[in-house]
Design a protein that fits this description.
alpha/beta; about 210 residues; globular
Length: about 210
Protein backbone atom coordinates (compact mmCIF):
# COMPACT_ATOMS: atom_id res chain seq x y z
CA UNK A 1 0.00 0.00 0.00
CA UNK A 2 1.08 3.56 -0.74
CA UNK A 3 -0.56 6.09 1.54
CA UNK A 4 -0.19 9.83 0.91
CA UNK A 5 -1.24 12.21 3.66
CA UNK A 6 -1.64 16.00 3.35
CA UNK A 7 0.99 16.29 0.62
CA UNK A 8 1.86 19.88 -0.31
CA UNK A 9 4.48 21.25 -2.70
CA UNK A 10 4.91 24.96 -3.38
CA UNK A 11 6.87 26.57 -6.22
CA UNK A 12 7.13 30.37 -6.38
CA UNK A 13 4.20 30.75 -3.97
CA UNK A 14 2.04 28.48 -6.17
CA UNK A 15 0.66 25.33 -4.57
CA UNK A 16 1.37 22.70 -7.21
CA UNK A 17 0.19 20.03 -4.77
CA UNK A 18 -2.35 21.33 -2.26
CA UNK A 19 -2.88 19.12 0.79
CA UNK A 20 -3.34 15.92 -1.24
CA UNK A 21 -4.34 12.70 0.49
CA UNK A 22 -4.80 9.45 -1.45
CA UNK A 23 -4.26 5.72 -0.93
CA UNK A 24 -3.08 3.26 -3.58
CA UNK A 25 -3.70 -0.45 -2.96
CA UNK A 26 -1.88 -3.41 -4.47
CA UNK A 27 -3.38 -5.36 -7.33
CA UNK A 28 -4.65 -2.23 -9.07
CA UNK A 29 -3.68 0.10 -11.89
CA UNK A 30 -4.31 3.77 -11.13
CA UNK A 31 -4.59 6.60 -13.61
CA UNK A 32 -3.74 10.23 -12.89
CA UNK A 33 -5.23 12.55 -15.52
CA UNK A 34 -4.50 16.24 -15.88
CA UNK A 35 -3.51 18.85 -18.41
CA UNK A 36 0.13 19.73 -18.96
CA UNK A 37 1.42 21.69 -15.97
CA UNK A 38 -1.28 20.39 -13.63
CA UNK A 39 1.22 18.76 -11.27
CA UNK A 40 1.06 15.12 -12.45
CA UNK A 41 4.82 14.77 -12.83
CA UNK A 42 5.50 16.63 -9.60
CA UNK A 43 3.19 14.25 -7.74
CA UNK A 44 4.83 11.14 -9.21
CA UNK A 45 8.38 12.45 -8.67
CA UNK A 46 7.47 13.25 -5.07
CA UNK A 47 6.11 9.71 -4.60
CA UNK A 48 9.41 8.39 -6.01
CA UNK A 49 11.46 10.54 -3.63
CA UNK A 50 12.97 12.71 -6.36
CA UNK A 51 11.23 15.85 -5.04
CA UNK A 52 10.93 16.74 -1.36
CA UNK A 53 7.44 17.97 -0.35
CA UNK A 54 6.98 21.08 1.77
CA UNK A 55 4.47 19.21 3.91
CA UNK A 56 2.95 15.77 4.26
CA UNK A 57 3.78 12.08 4.44
CA UNK A 58 4.32 9.32 1.88
CA UNK A 59 4.16 5.82 3.29
CA UNK A 60 5.18 2.69 1.44
CA UNK A 61 3.82 -0.18 3.56
CA UNK A 62 4.08 2.11 6.61
CA UNK A 63 7.64 3.26 5.80
CA UNK A 64 7.60 7.07 5.68
CA UNK A 65 10.04 7.94 2.90
CA UNK A 66 9.70 11.68 3.60
CA UNK A 67 10.72 11.34 7.23
CA UNK A 68 13.50 8.90 6.41
CA UNK A 69 14.63 11.02 3.44
CA UNK A 70 15.00 7.91 1.31
CA UNK A 71 13.77 6.43 -1.94
CA UNK A 72 10.88 3.95 -1.91
CA UNK A 73 11.78 0.24 -2.05
CA UNK A 74 11.19 -2.05 -5.05
CA UNK A 75 10.11 0.81 -7.29
CA UNK A 76 10.44 1.11 -11.05
CA UNK A 77 9.77 4.51 -12.59
CA UNK A 78 9.88 6.23 -15.95
CA UNK A 79 9.74 9.95 -16.63
CA UNK A 80 10.00 12.06 -19.77
CA UNK A 81 13.75 12.59 -19.47
CA UNK A 82 14.90 9.09 -18.54
CA UNK A 83 18.63 9.77 -18.83
CA UNK A 84 19.56 6.89 -21.12
CA UNK A 85 23.04 7.02 -22.65
CA UNK A 86 22.70 8.12 -26.30
CA UNK A 87 25.69 6.41 -27.94
CA UNK A 88 25.03 2.85 -26.71
CA UNK A 89 22.19 0.53 -27.65
CA UNK A 90 18.88 0.17 -25.86
CA UNK A 91 19.93 -3.28 -24.67
CA UNK A 92 23.27 -2.01 -23.36
CA UNK A 93 21.41 0.71 -21.47
CA UNK A 94 19.15 -1.89 -19.86
CA UNK A 95 22.09 -4.15 -18.97
CA UNK A 96 23.88 -1.21 -17.36
CA UNK A 97 20.83 -0.38 -15.24
CA UNK A 98 20.30 -4.04 -14.34
CA UNK A 99 23.92 -4.30 -13.13
CA UNK A 100 23.14 -1.91 -10.25
CA UNK A 101 20.99 -4.43 -8.38
CA UNK A 102 22.32 -7.47 -10.27
CA UNK A 103 19.18 -9.52 -9.66
CA UNK A 104 18.05 -10.34 -13.21
CA UNK A 105 19.66 -12.11 -16.15
CA UNK A 106 19.95 -10.96 -19.76
CA UNK A 107 17.19 -13.43 -20.58
CA UNK A 108 14.88 -11.71 -18.10
CA UNK A 109 15.75 -8.33 -19.58
CA UNK A 110 14.79 -9.65 -23.02
CA UNK A 111 11.44 -10.88 -21.69
CA UNK A 112 10.62 -7.30 -20.74
CA UNK A 113 11.84 -6.11 -24.13
CA UNK A 114 9.33 -8.49 -25.72
CA UNK A 115 6.53 -7.18 -23.47
CA UNK A 116 6.99 -3.66 -24.88
CA UNK A 117 7.43 -4.92 -28.47
CA UNK A 118 10.96 -3.53 -28.84
CA UNK A 119 12.94 -6.63 -29.89
CA UNK A 120 13.56 -5.45 -33.46
CA UNK A 121 15.13 -2.19 -32.27
CA UNK A 122 16.77 -3.14 -28.99
CA UNK A 123 20.29 -3.26 -30.47
CA UNK A 124 20.06 0.16 -32.14
CA UNK A 125 21.88 3.10 -30.59
CA UNK A 126 19.59 5.03 -28.29
CA UNK A 127 20.15 8.32 -30.13
CA UNK A 128 18.50 6.74 -33.19
CA UNK A 129 15.33 5.93 -31.26
CA UNK A 130 12.01 7.56 -32.11
CA UNK A 131 9.81 8.97 -29.35
CA UNK A 132 7.76 5.77 -29.25
CA UNK A 133 10.87 3.58 -29.00
CA UNK A 134 12.21 5.74 -26.16
CA UNK A 135 8.92 5.37 -24.32
CA UNK A 136 9.02 1.59 -24.77
CA UNK A 137 12.56 1.43 -23.38
CA UNK A 138 11.48 3.56 -20.43
CA UNK A 139 8.61 1.21 -19.64
CA UNK A 140 10.94 -1.76 -20.02
CA UNK A 141 13.42 -0.50 -17.41
CA UNK A 142 10.55 0.27 -15.04
CA UNK A 143 9.19 -3.30 -15.10
CA UNK A 144 12.18 -5.53 -15.90
CA UNK A 145 13.13 -6.29 -12.28
CA UNK A 146 9.58 -7.31 -11.35
CA UNK A 147 9.26 -4.22 -9.17
CA UNK A 148 6.42 -4.06 -6.64
CA UNK A 149 5.66 -0.41 -7.37
CA UNK A 150 5.60 0.84 -10.96
CA UNK A 151 5.32 4.57 -11.71
CA UNK A 152 4.86 5.62 -15.35
CA UNK A 153 4.71 9.30 -16.29
CA UNK A 154 3.10 9.91 -19.72
CA UNK A 155 4.32 6.50 -20.95
CA UNK A 156 2.24 6.05 -24.11
CA UNK A 157 3.13 9.11 -26.23
CA UNK A 158 4.27 8.09 -29.71
CA UNK A 159 3.79 4.34 -29.24
CA UNK A 160 2.18 2.52 -32.17
CA UNK A 161 -1.27 0.98 -31.68
CA UNK A 162 -0.12 -2.64 -31.91
CA UNK A 163 2.58 -2.18 -29.26
CA UNK A 164 0.27 -0.13 -27.06
CA UNK A 165 -2.33 -2.89 -27.05
CA UNK A 166 0.32 -5.46 -26.11
CA UNK A 167 1.75 -3.28 -23.32
CA UNK A 168 -1.68 -2.69 -21.78
CA UNK A 169 -2.48 -6.41 -21.83
CA UNK A 170 0.83 -7.16 -20.12
CA UNK A 171 0.37 -4.45 -17.47
CA UNK A 172 -2.98 -6.03 -16.60
CA UNK A 173 -1.31 -9.44 -16.37
CA UNK A 174 1.43 -8.29 -13.99
CA UNK A 175 -0.62 -6.02 -11.72
CA UNK A 176 -1.30 -8.71 -9.11
CA UNK A 177 0.71 -7.95 -5.94
CA UNK A 178 1.80 -4.66 -7.49
CA UNK A 179 0.73 -1.03 -7.54
CA UNK A 180 0.90 0.60 -10.98
CA UNK A 181 0.37 4.35 -11.31
CA UNK A 182 0.14 5.94 -14.76
CA UNK A 183 -0.17 9.64 -15.53
CA UNK A 184 -1.44 11.13 -18.78
CA UNK A 185 -3.05 14.27 -20.17
CA UNK A 186 -5.25 12.09 -22.41
CA UNK A 187 -7.95 10.30 -20.41
CA UNK A 188 -8.82 7.95 -23.27
CA UNK A 189 -5.30 6.48 -23.12
CA UNK A 190 -5.95 4.85 -19.76
CA UNK A 191 -9.64 4.78 -18.81
CA UNK A 192 -10.16 1.17 -19.99
CA UNK A 193 -6.81 0.05 -18.56
CA UNK A 194 -7.09 1.48 -15.05
CA UNK A 195 -9.07 0.20 -12.08
CA UNK A 196 -9.37 3.74 -10.72
CA UNK A 197 -8.81 7.11 -12.40
CA UNK A 198 -8.16 10.43 -10.65
CA UNK A 199 -8.01 13.96 -12.01
CA UNK A 200 -5.48 16.48 -10.77
CA UNK A 201 -6.32 20.17 -11.16
CA UNK A 202 -5.39 23.33 -9.25
CA UNK A 203 -3.30 21.28 -6.86
CA UNK A 204 -6.19 19.02 -5.85
CA UNK A 205 -6.89 15.41 -6.80
CA UNK A 206 -10.31 13.84 -7.14
CA UNK A 207 -11.58 10.44 -8.27
CA UNK A 208 -13.37 10.43 -11.62
Amino acid sequence: MIKIKNLTKIYDENKILDDISITFEEGKIYGIVGKNGSGKSVLLKTICGFIRPDKGEILFDNINIVKKQTFPPETGAMFENSGFIPNISGFENLKLLASINNIISEEEILKSVDIVNLKEDINKKYYKYSLGMRKKLGICQAIMENQKYIILDEPFNGIDDESLKKIKIQLNKIKENKIIIISTHIKEDIEKLCDEVYKISNGKINKI
